[in-house]
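Section 5: illustrative case.
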């Protein structure tokens, strides 16, 4: 009962921490919709058919906007009253199938009672209610306390088989008497045993050889290595095209394989510190392709695998704020080093991990910062200087779109030239 209470308490705590993130995600989607509505309302239509299609699109966007605003208020209400949205044991998707009569009551009950969790305690020999003992080769005996047994300490005993590569590690850990938690899960007529072991992280960031920065995206991991002085050293993109097409059960294997490739590559440069952005991913209402990718894209799954793989490979992880990393990379490093936007963002993250601040390039200062430059102010603040340059950039992008210029093939310097030069672009 205590373990069930602690697990429920953890779920509530997790939901409360996620609510502000949900609000930010919804605000981002509302902002994107406002831009689409503005474009749709200002669109000129030549025929009656085009006019009708545009009106229908505006109607759909307005309905979507109402739903998003309602959703945002719903999350804000819970934040204000320190509550959480309703949680469905057994998943909301399965619950909807039950409501439609596509799932029987027995199947629903089985889904709601398909796992047993037992928390570890060092004072109780590792785990009091569910004990795991090594019995030879790759086999272990699991002894589960039987709550319906008539005798004291009556246990249900089964043999568990673990993959060979984990056997020595698990057996060695069990011999220490340290705490381990176990979750038994019934899936497709089989019983799975999930073991969680507690280990101290021993690796510490090492800046003497330089660091690697990684930008995480729905279809790739972009990694850039820098020297200790912050200069560019090497960069590589690790593609994950299949991540959005394979079954969910295969994604873990795919993600781990790619991450091991990343670790092997950075270690080939004698690098043992990896800089990543703070653990959050704000989705936005973008294109259909992006929405499809982000729906399948499990950022938390990649992060969990990254924590595990980096620990096993003895690579230190360092988190930094990701504010304007993509934009700064586009402005300062993309064209200089021939990088993609994501590789340039990884470059910025790596430099930020080393403690470097990004100054506004001198050639762009006269556009927006003439007064500050005369006063000798160092132009490197994220939310004062870079934010102002980003707003200017966004305005120019909108202007270019109206004259039909595609942005994918244009560097920031070209955009700057267009805005400041009297010559045709």
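Designed sequence:
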């Amino acid at each position: 009962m205590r373990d069930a209470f602690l697990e429920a308490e953890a779920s509530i705590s997790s939901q409360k921490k996620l609510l502000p993130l949900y609000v930010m995600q919804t605000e981002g989607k509302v902002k994107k919709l406002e831009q689409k509505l503005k474009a749709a309302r200002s669109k000129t239509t030549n025929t009656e058919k085009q006019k009708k299609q545009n009106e229908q699109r505006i109607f759909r966007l307005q309905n979507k906007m109402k739903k998003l605003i309602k959703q945002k208020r719903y999350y804000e209400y819970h934040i204000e009253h320190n509550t959480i949205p309703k949680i469905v044991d057994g998943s909301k998707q399965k619950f909807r199938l039950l409501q439609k009569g596509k799932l029987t009551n027995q199947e629903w009950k089985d889904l709601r009672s398909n796992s047993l969790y037992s928390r570890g305690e060092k004072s109780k020999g590792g785990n009091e209610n569910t004990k795991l003992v090594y019995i030879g080769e790759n086999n272990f005996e699991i002894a589960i306390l039987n709550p319906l047994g008539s005798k004291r300490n009556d246990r249900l005993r089964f043999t568990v088989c673990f993959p060979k590569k984990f056997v020595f590690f698990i057996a060695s850990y069990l011999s220490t008497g340290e705490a381990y938690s176990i979750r038994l899960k019934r899936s497709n007529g089989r019983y799975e045993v999930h073991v969680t072991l507690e280990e101290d992280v021993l690796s510490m960031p090492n800046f003497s050889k330089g660091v690697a920065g990684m930008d995480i995206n729905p279809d790739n991991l972009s990694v850039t290595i820098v020297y200790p002085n912050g200069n560019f050293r090497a960069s590589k993109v690790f593609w994950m095209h299949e991540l959005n097409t394979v079954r969910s059960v295969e994604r873990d294997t795919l993600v781990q394989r790619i991450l091991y490739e990343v670790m092997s590559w950075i270690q080939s440069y004698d690098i043992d510190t990896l800089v990543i952005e703070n653990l959050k991913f704000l989705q936005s209402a973008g294109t259909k392709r992006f929405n499809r990718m982000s729906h399948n894209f499990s950022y938390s799954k990649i992060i969990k695998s990254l924590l595990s793989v980096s620990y096993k490979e003895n690579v230190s992880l360092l988190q930094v704020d990701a504010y304007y990393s993509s934009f700064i990379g586009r402005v300062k490093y993309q064209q200089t080093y021939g990088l993609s936007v994501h590789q340039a963002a990884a470059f910025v993250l790596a430099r930020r991990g080393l403690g470097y601040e990004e100054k506004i390039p001198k050639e762009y200062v006269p556009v927006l910062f003439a007064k500050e430059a005369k006063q000798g102010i160092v132009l490197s603040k994220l939310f004062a200087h870079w934010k102002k340059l980003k707003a200017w950039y966004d305005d120019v992008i909108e202007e270019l779109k109206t004259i039909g210029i595609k942005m994918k093939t244009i560097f920031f310097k070209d955009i700057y030239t267009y805005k400041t030069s009297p010559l045709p672009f």
